[in-house]
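Postdoc handover notes: sequence design on the structure in folder B. Input tokens:
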């Protein structure tokens, strides 16, 4: 067991020195002395241009022997500016957790190592988990802080174009095409565009909405973010410290507008990306954009980044009898406000976040609501239970340090950690869960009890953060029915198999969205979709498939996820694109 008196800093320095020596002269015995038999190494761009997680001492040893000579990783040390090494508990294991820095032949990196005692010799500490990441490319450092642009090119030339003139020219693209076209102007599009801007890569965002932030502004009236403000910052610009804990959708939409202006991002609103093809000879895309006035613009960017979210095309279930319903039928993406349905009757099909929130919004507006469950759903109270996964961000390290520590949790350890948190959440929420079960609500807790976040990472949904709708179900104020119990839909609603009628003026299909593969096929054709394969969910590398890194289709990249996920991973995606632009990749 890890001794409380162990000096975390000295232990980490000793391990880093031995690791650097082993990298300089890769030998089996040296690596065997450094890693636990059940250890994990996650590398992001530092040793190979990829996201990759390896598990097991032998696999890690073989990979390090292969990649160490060409990487030139050296100068490992503990940075004074980062959180100091400390003893923590991760996934039920007591460990020394330390942030370190290093250099390679092409860049500078950082990482996290977690040390635990050797089972055979408790006086020797070995790596349980190791993260190595590339933070910047030498010669292409971001122009931040003291390295910021001087602004003299326009501020000292009174007869030349000023800042606004230059911004308008840059955003118009009258005489050039961007190097990178980002499709989608939500958090993922803004994050990657901001990162590329700092690396001096010419980037244009296009979004079909008429105003920046409309992808949030136009969603249903009551929506707020379901995780807390201190986790959700975009790169470079933190939310003001007086913002509410849970950010309302319209406030976030306004922030997106301010962010685009402040970060000087090129952004075309009301612009539909109609599709494209890849020119293998020119190594460029030929894409078509349709502007608000109906005109079309052909562009030839070297890279297209799909930043349209985890999924983009509404999923509409095939329910033949639904065609007989004579009331209003909407997909959840079309729903805006419950005020028009006061004193009306509504059926909401689907029990994820959107289904519950819409049901509660309708109920609050005076509608009589029946929520229809299609499959077992994870339910968790928004506080404190749903926030347990963000406990790290309350521990004290800086946002940058928390992001790195979170990134340093490999898949298998993450699953174990989330299973612990799911058990804790179930204990906290037991009364609510018992009440739902008594009403006939079918619960689940994710694959292998891994909870809501892994549901999101594997399928993009299937859970509900309870902000009151579950209580309304328990109290009988919102009715519950199982989809399997519906015999047929009728002109006036639905008939259950027991003969009971559910009357409705409105049916909302909160049935989610199709995977991104469907959007890729629509925009780029069957060949590109087949070449890339599945998007999202975990693959054989223990990483999200085709996300944040190179795909089998040259010049096509993907970024998606919540604000924190995009903030973290946009850095690594931008570095890869910059490396391509400079002929390094």
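Designed sequence:
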């Amino acid at each position: 067991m890890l001794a409380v008196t162990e000096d975390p800093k000295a232990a980490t320095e000793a391990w880093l020195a031995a690791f650097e020596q082993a990298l300089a002269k890769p030998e089996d015995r040296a690596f065997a002395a450094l890693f636990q038999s059940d250890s994990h190494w996650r590398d992001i761009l530092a040793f190979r241009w990829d996201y990759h997680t390896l598990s097991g001492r032998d696999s890690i040893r073989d990979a390090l022997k292969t990649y160490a000579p060409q990487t030139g990783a050296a100068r490992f040390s503990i940075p004074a500016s980062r959180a100091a090494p400390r003893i923590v508990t991760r996934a039920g294991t007591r460990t020394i957790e330390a942030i370190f820095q290093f250099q390679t032949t092409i860049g500078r990196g950082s990482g996290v190592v977690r040390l635990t005692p050797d089972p055979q010799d408790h006086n020797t500490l070995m790596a349980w988990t190791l993260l190595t990441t590339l933070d910047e490319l030498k010669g292409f450092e971001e122009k931040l802080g003291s390295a910021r642009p001087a602004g003299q090119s326009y501020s000292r030339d009174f007869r030349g174009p000023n800042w606004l003139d230059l911004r308008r020219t840059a955003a118009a693209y009258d005489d050039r095409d961007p190097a990178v076209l980002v499709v989608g102007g939500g958090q993922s599009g803004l994050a990657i565009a901001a990162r590329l801007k700092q690396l001096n890569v010419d980037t244009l965002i296009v979004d079909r909405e008429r105003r920046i932030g409309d992808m949030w502004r136009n969603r249903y009236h009551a929506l707020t973010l379901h995780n807390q403000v201190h986790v959700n910052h975009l790169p470079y610009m933190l939310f003001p410290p007086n913002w509410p804990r849970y950010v309302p959708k319209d406030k976030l939409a306004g922030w997106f507008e301010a962010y685009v202006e402040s970060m000087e991002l090129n952004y075309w609103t009301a612009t539909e990306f109609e599709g494209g093809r890849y020119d293998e000879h020119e190594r460029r895309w030929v894409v078509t954009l349709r502007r608000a006035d109906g005109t079309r613009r052909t562009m030839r960017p070297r890279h297209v980044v799909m930043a349209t979210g985890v999924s983009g095309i509404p999923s509409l279930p095939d329910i033949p009898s639904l065609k007989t319903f004579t009331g209003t039928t909407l997909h959840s993406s079309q729903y805006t406000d419950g005020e028009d349905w006061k004193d009306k009757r509504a059926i909401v099909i689907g029990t994820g976040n959107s289904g519950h929130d819409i049901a509660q919004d309708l109920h609050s507006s005076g509608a009589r609501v029946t929520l229809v469950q299609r499959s077992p759903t994870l339910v968790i109270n928004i506080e404190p239970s749903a926030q347990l996964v963000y406990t790290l961000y309350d521990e004290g390290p800086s946002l940058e340090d928390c992001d790195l520590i979170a990134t340093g949790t490999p898949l298998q350890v993450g699953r174990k950690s989330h299973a612990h948190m799911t058990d804790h959440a179930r204990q906290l929420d037991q009364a609510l869960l018992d009440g739902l079960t008594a009403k006939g609500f079918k619960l689940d807790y994710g694959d292998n009890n891994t909870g809501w976040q892994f549901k999101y990472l594997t399928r993009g949904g299937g859970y509900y953060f309870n902000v009151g709708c579950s209580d309304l179900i328990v109290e009988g104020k919102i009715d519950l029915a199982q989809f399997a119990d519906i015999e047929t839909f009728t002109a006036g609603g639905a008939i259950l198999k027991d003969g009971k009628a559910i009357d409705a003026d409105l049916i909302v299909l909160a049935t989610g969205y199709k995977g991104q593969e469907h959007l890729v096929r629509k925009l780029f054709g069957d060949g590109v979709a087949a070449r890339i394969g599945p998007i999202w969910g975990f693959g054989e590398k223990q990483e999200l498939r085709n996300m944040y890194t190179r795909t089998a289709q040259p010049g096509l990249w993907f970024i998606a996820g919540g604000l924190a996920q995009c903030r973290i991973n946009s850095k690594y995606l931008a570095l890869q694109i910059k490396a391509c632009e400079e002929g390094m990749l």
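Context for whoever picks this up: The radius of gyration is 26 Å. Don't rerun without checking with the PI first.
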